[in-house]
Specification:
The chain is mainly α. Helix content is 68%, strand content 5%. The protein has a 3-stranded antiparallel beta sheet.
């Protein structure tokens, strides 16, 4: 009787273990992940911006683009800080250099177009900051739309010092990159194309938002 009871208990234990093993197998990554359609790649867990191999490659590119943009604007702020005591951000420096471009006064709309920016309030804030710092000044006050900005004597001096430090710093570094000089024009053209694609994507997204 005791042997019968032990045998029954062993069979019951084996059944429980088999059921548990089956449940664990059903939850293994290879059964719920590892494909391009289920939101996971290489069994590393899901991410909403990398649901397929194409999306993952695009996400890798966009992260590199983010890092490039942040490094670029941090460089501009650091370069300006080395030649001027006025604390400015990379965005402010971009506005200052565009106002100085060609030594021609520019309207705020022109500055926005050259920088591909539509955030007018932020541009207005940047120009006011630069005016208070004595780096740019306004001319033509008939209306806000007609107001144009130009570099002051101090602004000319600062931007010249900025350009000199930039020339002494970046070109030697970039010229050390294999193929940089020959491929620079092609890279610039491709970046312009990508900029257009993202602008088109923004228009499509806005249209989609207003569709019923």
């Amino acid at each position: 009787m005791k042997r019968t009871t032990n045998a029954a208990a062993a069979r019951k234990s084996a059944a429980v273990k088999a059921k548990s093993a089956k449940s664990r197998t059903a939850l293994q990554p290879e059964n719920v992940a590892g494909t391009e359609d289920d939101g996971r790649l290489d069994g590393k867990g899901s991410w909403h911006l990398a649901r397929s191999d194409a999306e993952r490659r695009l996400s890798d590119f966009e992260f590199a683009l983010e890092r490039l943009a942040q490094s670029y604007y941090r460089w501009k702020a650091s370069c300006l800080a080395a030649v001027c005591e006025v604390p400015l951000t990379g965005d402010d420096v971009a506005v200052l250099n565009v106002v100085r471009m060609g030594d021609e006064p520019k309207r705020l709309t022109e500055v926005g177009q050259l920088l591909n920016r539509v955030d007018v309030p932020n541009l207005q804030y940047a120009t006011r900051k630069l005016v208070r710092a004595g780096l740019i000044e306004t001319e033509g006050r008939s209306s806000r739309k007609e107001t144009r900005y130009r570099a002051t004597a101090r602004g000319l001096e600062v931007t010249e010092d900025y350009a000199a430090l930039r020339a002494a710093t970046l070109p030697p570094m970039f010229e050390g990159l294999p193929g940089w000089i020959d491929g620079c024009a092609a890279t610039t053209a491709q970046l312009d194309q990508l900029s257009g694609l993202y602008a088109q994507g923004a228009r499509v997204a806005i249209t989609r938002r207003h569709q019923p």
